[in-house]
Amino acid sequence: MAALGPQAERTRLAAAGARSVTRAAILSGQPLKDVIKGRIFFALLLLALGLSLLGLAALILDAVIDGRSMLSLDLLTNSASRISPETAGYANAIYGTILLIGGVLVMTVPIGIGSAIYLEEYADRTKWWNRVVELNIQNLAAVPSIVYGILGLAFIVRGPLDLGFILFAGSITLSLLVLPTVIIAAREAIRAVPPSIREGSFALGATRWQTVRRQVLPAAIPGIATGVILAVSRAAGETAPLLLVGAATFVTFDPTVFGDNGYTALPVMIFNNAKQAQPEFHVLAAAGIVVMLAVILLMNSFAIWLRNRYEQRW
Amino acid sequence: MEARDAIGASRAIGAGGGPSRSLQAPSPRYGEKAIEAVLGLCALLSVVTTTAIVISLLEPSIEFFGQVSLKDFLFGTAWAPTFTPPEFGVLPIVLATVVTSFWGLLVAIPLGLGAAIYLSEYASPRVRKTIKPTLEVLAGVPTVAIGFFALFFLRPLLEDLLPFLPWSGPQAAGVAGLAVGLMIVPIIASLSEDAMSAVPMGLREAAYGLGATKMRVATRVVLPAALSGIVASIVLATSRAVGETMIVLLAAGASPNLTVGFTESVQTMTAFIGQTATGDIATGTVTYYTIFAVGLLLFVMTLVLNMISIRLVRRFHEAYD
Amino acid sequence: MTSFKWLTIVACVSVLALGVTACGSDDASSGGGDDLSGTIRIDGSSTVAPLSEAAAELFQEEQPGVKVTVGTSGTGGGFEKFCAGEIDISDASRPIEEDEIAACEKNGISFEEVQVANDALSVVVNPENPVECMTVEQVSQIWDKGSTVDSWGDVKGLEADIGDESMALYGPGTDSGTFDYFTEAINGEEGVTRSNYNNIGEDDNGVINGVAGDPWALGYVPYSFVEESAGKVKPLQIENPESGECVAPTLATVQDASYVPLGRGLFVYPSGEALQKQEVLDFLTFYIAENDPITEAATFIPMTEAQKEAAQQKVNSLVEG
Lengths: 314, 321, 321
What we know:
The structure holds 3 protein chains of 3 kinds. Helices cover 73% and strands 1% of the residues of chain B. By secondary structure, chain B is mostly helical. Chain C is α/β, with parallel strands linked by helices. Chain C is 41% helix and 17% strand. The longest helix of chain C has 22 residues. At the A-B interface, helix 2, helix 4, helix 5, helix 6 and helix 7 of A face helix 1, helix 2, helix 4, helix 5 and helix 6 of B.
């Protein structure tokens, strides 16, 4: 007679598992050990994905929990306040971030895609200067953001461009920071387009540019979109270079792109709030993080839609 | 659409049975040359940027090395440029950068690649369309947020999970490294997934046709085919990890200890630059110039790393089709 | 339409709505009274910034036409911009240095050091710690360069006997004015300090959290962090070197100068050129006159009447001179 209790339960489960694996092995015609390996592999993949998503969820939850007392639509419409943090908001910072990111998009998308097209389609890779450019771009991706701040201060705000402490200078600095990401991602996307597509196009008499514009680029849009998403997300979340290039930490009016009245950005304000002694500001910082995530999601949505629309598998 | 038009046009030309045409382009195609020039200029911008960075770093660095010997800088083991008397041995902060990046990559590569393989090979298109953008939100979290998350959430959590480690203060190199890893997961995951998706289905189908299991197709066929993109994503992620400032500043601290301990507070090169550049040091002093010297060193280090990686990638690049 | 098309439309509409509401939140300029307009740029120390921010906010309530911005590039960064004529007022947590004075003179920028608040640097311990009072000498024993104090028992002459509990030390960033002031007041010279302690870097809250989390920890922070910590840490009384009495850091003891040597003043540096603008002059007068609500908002110690008068004198002399 079969014993009852946990021992029996375990045996039952073990038997069920063995039955399912054996059935899968017989039905799929694969050796048993491959089926087991396959399942373990699949479980590991799910674990990897799960841990990443768990990390993100923990981050978001942590911010929501810490900032819950201040989460309201007032955050979007109120200005910063030192006197009364309970009613403070991020309105001007959100506007500043949106303007900054707009500038980054306008600059990095054409220049990034243009560089990538040149390096992949036109450049002769045996020539040494093209290899130098490649190495250059890869290296620029590793330069710390603060060094771009130093660069911005020396050459864009002062120096040859001499723009002063305006929002546009911040946009340029951030664009230079994330341009390597866009270029590298775009290059990989263009490289992944099968050569047969290009050759077919040439065979039909198209010029190189026509091929690029009509065949290669549309095929590469998903990868380029990913690069742009990652780049713009990073630019939106950067604090250090903006501080050096003149972003203020306290601004109570809406900035303009070329005006020299001053501007600020969401992450700069969040950082400033988190550093304060008063605990109300810590709550405000957590609420700011939630706002930031919402802004990022909104910004990414368009690129994601674009990517999904142009996706294709060869 | 365009291909169909082109085919129709060529059929028309062929059917017209006109005189034999030369294979030369009928006009010198100035438009093409102009486009090539414009694109080339775009690429040149990166060189201009690097030159500008090097210039802005070089001059103050030269001032710096006029007062501090290169040997002391590169081989000294005590980093205290703001103390009296100051010490300029850069090893502690270099080691800190290496250690935190190491932990970051240790976390990000398995997680990122695992997620990428799942999304590309196993997930249904609907799942993929939701999860990929969700992961990419992680790339948009401000680094200050991740830094505070590491400080107030990860650190207590890890102390609970691993109580046998010698935890002391609230800042720890390993915790900062893990947080950096979490931040760069979307870079590896998203770009690798793009690379794997771009592998032609024909390759997979051929493998299945030969009786390969899904796991084998994913690891032996798709992964090697997409290797160039995957390696590019890892190199990009490494660059990002090495250059990260805010997370390490908040979560690893500002104590330049020469140690590889997971639980020790350390100061990375970027944290030093970030803190000192926005601190109260007077510009124009030797202490201030250390920012540029460290920046230059970081630039050179990543240059060497990238040169090595480019060589490696070239050797392993596989082209299909 | 696909779901993402809806998402895009929603996104665009919400961005537009955001823009409208953001524009709507602009202060409507009310007529009447002597309405000023213009911009005032302030930058510099992040310690003094809360004061300038409070002043800016209160001033803008009275004069909505004036746009005041406050930045935090650090005292050094602030002075650099100040001496280049790029900002109107520099927030400073330390006095201006020789190189900076030279730079200002070279560009013809005249300035004055105007006090705006008082601060009490506090040595803090965990509330469970029985020690209440320390002498400057004892603090120096702990913090001086080459100090071998590892546990509480090593400190000579403590009122309470703690035995061999090991002492964890926390200090703010070594590039900050707080660090400069503390090392000079306690160890006799700026920048002279032991090197093996937890340097928490950017965020002074790190000292509070570190000390609150360890019953035998010790650290030093500006007054506002102690006040706002709501009992998480206990500020030590420091024995006044002259009177021999233990003095706690409070508003009264700083104002009557009995909390020495760790009571300090906080300053801003306006430029003569900026003061030619009516709005800047009004702002500074406001800053000094409304000292009480401003320091309360930023949790600093207000100035005495005598200090306020002296500050106003300096402003007036700069306007005339």
